[in-house]
User: What shape does this take?
Amino acid sequence: MHNARDIKFRLPWKALGPLRLVVGLLFVLAAFGKLVSYENTIRQVATRQWIPDGWVQPIADLLILLEFGLGLLFVTGRALRPTAVCGALLSAAFSLLTFRRLLAGETGACFCLGNLLPLPTPVMFLLDVALVVSCLCLFRDQRVETNDTEDKGRALQARRL
Assistant: This one.
């Protein structure tokens, strides 16, 4: 009889490709939305009182570049493990910010995806949490796949000798 600790969750291999593409496209969409409504992006970053005035525009630029870069890395499947970690951390930070907005009673449009797709704050919070979970799934399953591939490579190499 199996207990709960013996059962390991693992996404089917066929689900990883579409999940990776969806996550990547969401990051690219967020970066593009922030770029299209650049002035609004700067205003949104400026609303964070803990960011000094001189840092607002560089942080907005860095955020756009980071989201665009992560999106491209997810879509192409390059450096998936570090990309998944960075994506999970960025999405977790966004989750905390949107959760803070929810606690403050703000349920209006959240411009996390820019003016392209203004979503209500509760919906954006759920999307951010889903991104965190998706990135962690991609990290975990990529790790398992890498180990399987390395083991197969060693076995093939041993047979050649």
Observations:
- Residues 60 and 84 are 21 Å apart (CA to CA).
- Residues 16-160 form one domain.
- Residues 121-160 form the longest helix (40 residues).
- The chain has a mean pLDDT of 81.
